[in-house]
Structures are given as C-alpha cells and as structure tokens.
Amino acid sequence: MSDATDAQLAAQYEALPYPARDPRDEARRLIVGSPSHLAEVDHWVFGARRAASLPLRALVAGGGTGDGAIMLAQQMAWAGRPGEVVWLDRSGAARKVAEARAAARGLSNIRFVEGSILDLPADLGRFDYVDCCGVLHHLPDPDAGLRALAGVLNPGGGMGIMVYAPHGRTGVYMLQEALRRIAPADEAPAVRVDVAKRVMRHLPETAWMRKNPWITDHLPLPQGGGDPGLYDLLLNPRDQAYTVPQLVELVAGAGMRIACLVEPLRYDPDPLLPDPKLRARTAGMSMIERAALAEALAGNMGIHIAYLARAADPEVRADWDAPGAVPVLRSGTGAEWAKGIRNGGLPVTFDGLRVVLPVPALAGAILNRIDGKRTVAEVMADVPATPAQVNRDFAALRAALEPMNRLLLAAPAA
C-alpha cells in the first residue's frame, strides 16, 4: 500500500535515520520515555496481573534508530525478565544504528527484522505487547496500519502508541506549507535541510512557530533533533495529527480501546477549571469528553500517548488492594519525590503548564518507604501513624501520583 509520498518517506529515513542517535552514548545513559517503559506496560496494559516470570514477546513496529526497543529490552534484561523484543522497520540505515546501540549494551534479547507495518512478515508470529511510537501518522493508511498491528496481538495483549496532536503543534503545519513551496519534495534531503535552516534564520517574528516553545525537534543537537529532527518535523511528506476524539475513532476502527492516556492527569480538565460551577458541568462527562476538553483548554499537547487494549478483552485495572501488590515509582526515589512537597502540595509541570497537586500529611513518610520490594501492606504498616490515617493518606497519595504516571504497581513475581 505504497504511493509516491511513501517512497519519499522511505528515502528520508535512509538519508536521515530518525531520531539522531550515537551508539557511543549508550555507555552513559539509557533514553527512557513513553510508551513502552516496562513499569508502564506492567501497570497500564496488564493491570499488574501478568507474572514477571512469563516470557514477554514484544514488537516495536517502526523501531527507527532504536529508542523504544533498546529501552524495553534493557529494562527486561536488568529485571531478569524472559522474552524477546522484535525491532521492525524498513530503514536499513536506522537498523545499523539500532543494532550498534544494542551491541554497545550487550543486549541479546532483541531481534532485528526489516519490513513494513502495512506488509508484516508472515513469520513474525504473535505478540503480548506492540509498540508503535510516532509511526501511524506517517502511513498512507493509518487505519490499515493499526488494524494490522492489532491482528498480531495475543488475547489479553495490549499496545502502546504515540501520534501527533494538532494544538501543541501550532505553527508546524504553516511552516510545512511554506517549505513545500520553497523546498519542493522532489529535491534531495540535504538540499531541503539547507533551505529549511536558511528559512528558520529569517523566520518572521509573527510566525506561530516562533511562538511555540514546546516544539524543539528542529533545533541543533543536543537541544533538539539535529538535521533528522528538522526534516522529520518540517519537511516530512506526510504528517497527520489527531485530536482525542479522532484518536478514539482510529483506535476503535482497529478493534481496540484506550486503556490509558499518558499522563492521565494531563487529560483531566478539573485542575484547569477550579470554578465549582464549571466542575459541575465536567462531572457528567465521559473520560473521552473530559480528555477532549482538557486538550482544547491546555493547547500544549503536541502528541498523544496511549495504551490500548483489545476491545474484545475484559477491562483490566491495577488492583491496589490485591494481596502482595507492590508499589513502584516509575522514576526517581521516594525520598526525591518527598523533597518536592511544599505546604501540602506537589508542583508538577507539563510542557509549561504548572499544576500543584494536593498531597496528604503522611505523603513524605509513605514515599520514603516505597522501594519496589515492599508490598502496599508492608509500606503502610511501617508508617508511624494510626491504621486509619495511613489508609486514608495512602489512598490520597495514590490518587495524586497514579494519574501522573509516577506511582504504579509492579508485575507479580509469579
């Protein structure tokens, strides 16, 4: 299902593998993010019910230079989790970078396969988890692409996707139009990059792109994405953005449903609308209606990250009351999070939008006891307060940090 635009896209990623990565950097850091962070997959996709001892078979579809595949494979290796991560992409240039990064880390749990999402190799088999980050919005038929990926999921499996969102990309599409006129798509990528850089140096002060601080991929390395980032952002021959309702429609068409939008807090309009009369109106809205409202109000969402479940599968949520449930922090330590609490609130910022989350009095004491090993019951039993106080404050802390995608439940050991 290829066309002339798709051929241009394929040539782009051969000339400028995306994102720009140097395998030598693997010695000093692991790039982490969403989707496909192992703690998120355990919590949002499997509801912290799928045993860590079960082999996890994951497909990273459109793996590019390897960010998602390297992250997931490394986290599995560190945790001693059995399974395999299959990197799939049609770019041989990107494959070379991703393979070099995996070799630098000594990862043996990644398999590299060249191929297209719209023509999946027949011998790939089925998967427990599929990652498709930053790919669907470039396909000639995103609906067909998502349906194809849904078709290789095992029952009970799930997906993590990222697509562009229009409001936070204000200015991008205007500049894309300008560059199509002055740097036609039939010119060589290097020539188009040079023209785009020259245009950026003379961009009028009134251009919306100059007023959008959330877009940085066009900036030079290390602040931005270098030439590959600039090309992907401003010269990409196909770029489709989705509002929340449009994303829901795309997902439903593939026989899937949204299990979680990341971070859930960003899609809650109530922190943006403290007026009681306004909250009375939002109270009756569905999750998707609330998310669409928050998206339109905030204006800073340039992407949507979502974890998906098969529509035919029963809904699975993490059970915080389950015996043996182990709380984990997605990033940082409990002590670090506790230090951020000021006057009963925890300030957080999402792309320039600052929100102060109310946290309970025992939040610091609870956070300092979360180590990824102790169960919820063991953490609460160790907090010096009455059981009623601890139960109340743990529930309040979870209500604040789970929607931030920071306090999650670990996969059970067996």
TrEMBL record:
Boundaries of every Methyltransferase domain copy: 59-157
InterPro entries on file: Methyltransf_25, SAM-dependent_MTases_sf
GO molecular function term, any single one: methyltransferase activity
Keyword Transcription attributed: no
Biological process per Gene Ontology, one example term: methylation
Entry keyword Transmembrane: no
Keywords: Methyltransferase, Transferase
Protein name: Class I SAM-dependent methyltransferase
Species this protein is from: Roseomonas indoligenes
